[in-house]
Specification:
The chain has about 70 residues and is α+β, with helices and mostly antiparallel strands. It has one helix and three strands; from the N terminus they run βββα.
Length: about 70
């Protein structure tokens, strides 16, 4: 069984992601003009890393969507 791990650390200006493989760390920086962008990107990165976002042809998939009132 393959074990995966993704460590997410909240830092002053965003997030620092470390994967369990040899990939370099990934940094998500917050944008002072778009307070949700960093959180949206974090959700996408987690889905991408674990392979859960799928494609539009999959019968079921997870999706991140931003909505405005």
């Amino acid at each position: 069984m393959e074990k995966w791990r993704l460590t997410i650390t909240k830092v002053d200006n965003g997030f620092y992601l470390v994967k369990s493989n040899d990939d370099p760390p990934y940094v998500i920086q917050e944008d002072e003009n778009d307070h949700l962008r960093a959180y949206e990107e974090l959700c996408w990165k987690v889905l991408e890393y674990f392979g859960y976002y799928g494609s539009k042809h999959d019968p079921e998939r997870l999706f991140v969507r931003r909505e405005k009132n």
